[in-house]
Batch of 4 targets.
Target 1
Amino acid sequence: MRLPLLALLTRGPAHGYELKQHLEQLLGAAYPQPNIGQVYVTLGRLEKSGLIDGEDVEQSGRPNKRTYRLTDAGREAVQAWFEETTDEPRVRDEFFMKLALAPESGLADPIALINKQRRQYLNTMRNLSKLAAAEDRDNRISQLLIEGAMLHLQADLDWLERCQEELE
């Protein structure tokens, strides 16, 4: 959450609720919606670490709101984040750990686990398809997110087939 918030602040000062709304609009309904409490806790931590500066802004008839702006150190952190590649190997997959340990424990049938996981992936794909149809077609970021998730799920389904072939 911290780096996406910093990246949004590169556009200019904003308060927490604006940042939350912008993330929701940008990513659409397929991406887990940020909790406003989490946004403000993260902003507080970013301020303490010197990556953003906060300023209270008076509002008539309402409590003050806190607006945040990026510091030079925050801008450098965002730049470094964009320059890094993302390395998320799937070798620590929880399902695969269950599959590997099922025969060892004698408590679960590996083929039954595969079938149950396959049903889960297919249900998730159906839900994503419905979400894609309901999502604003002009929100290309959201559509790409959904498409990427569906491609990952298809790869996972293909991998389950391979596992089943090896274990039968």
Target 2
Amino acid sequence: MITLVTGGAKCGKSSYAEKVLENFEGEKYYVATMNPMGDDAKEIIARHIKMRRDKDFVTVECLRDIGNADVPEGCAVLIECMGNLCANEMFIGPNVHKPAEKIVEGIRRLSERTAELVIVTNEVGCDGISYSADTKAYISQLSEINCKIAEFADNVVECVYGIPVVRKGSLIC
């Protein structure tokens, strides 16, 4: 089962994604993609660790190459989040010109090893603001990732002001 959870900033995506896996009986892995650079990133990471404290997740850091995330066969995985992963593939380490293909293929490979896969992503580029060429390329790649994953996901849920809205499939919790 693959569930894509999308929405704007601080809209309840992470909380909903965790609820999807709340009743999963096996091992649950939280694949963290945020590069811990700067105070803002460290604050977000600390908040997410606090949110997961009593939820029995094993945390695995995976800043790039999501298809190679170190998780066992048959587990549940929550990936937090595609926006960070896309930025990491584009701007950290060896530059991946078109990360959408690499990330989507990695998600497909990861989904073959997992019983449940929940992917948190962001809605970007809807604000009408003019951006630099690099930012436009990032928005384009993340949009492509979101569209391609939504095509093969069983469920697509958009969180709006903390309310999960089903866009495809069914509401899990």
Target 3
Amino acid sequence: MNWTIIRTDVAHPDAVAIMREYMDEVASRYYGRPITEAELTHYVAEEPGTDLVPPAGAFFVGRRDGEVAGCAGTRVVEPGISELTKVFIKPAHRGTGGGPALVAAAEEAARGFGSALMRLDTRHDLVEARALYAKIGYDEVEPFNDGQFAEHWFAKALS
């Protein structure tokens, strides 16, 4: 089964749908229960991803055998530094190579924005994400922000 990674406008229906799935999963895991539709709508409105567009951002949708199965985004946070965000693979597609492929696309976009460093933060309970980042060369670093949900910080040189 093959992955295809496509840079996609965040307003495209496929992008909107996969970002909703991402937010549903991470919020439900955080609260330890399925979130309501009202909560999901609220969280998506808080983190719409509208900054993941050119000239300083990009969003990618991953398809596995034609089915939307994951996403990742990046945005420049300061000159030379981009942030990796919204990395998500649907549970049925995890472990099939989509995560590394999506992150590689985001890293390439960040290089195109002139970034020499990619960084991200994540939560303790997102163990699959932390394992992915370690596997593909991200090192855990000292905190660089005080985000509400930031519990682990990672960075990788984009050489």
Target 4
Amino acid sequence: MKKYFLISLIALVLTGCNSAPNERDKEAPKAEHIDFDKHLKDLNIVLAEPSAPLASYVKTVRVGNLVYTAGHGPDKPDGSRITGRLGDDLTLEQGQEAARLTGISLLSSLKAELGDLNKVKRIVKVLGMVQSAPDFKDQPKVMNAFSDLMVEVFGEKGKHTRSAVGMSALPANWATEIEMVIEVED
């Protein structure tokens, strides 16, 4: 009986006690080949040459299979930016436009770093900062425009963890500043 019990115990350990996959064991969505230049054009998204950093830093840094971005602001196609404080100077809708433009700015820097957006395995983590009046509480609604853009562009690979916080001031009076961590193919 002891021998049977020991063999059963070893078999459980070797095969795993639970055959159902654990959440943490799930891999990132598999990469599928997409012509991102065409896909972005179909979405009416134009990536520009990334703007120069405002100070002594770089826009992206790759460490192994992760790319970290610096905080980016809401660059308009004409080179200007959406500036002001949500709840004072800007409406929720203007804040959402700023978050979406910031996302496009981040995509421009990411493409410059990788050369091909098809190397994106998953958007992992996003920090969204919204310049807000003290009584403005809709930072998550502002950041939804950014998150929706990442899913629109990357599908399941665009889903990410996120923090959306209010700030009393941002560099150059930007309405939004966003940074992210991206897992990429080797």
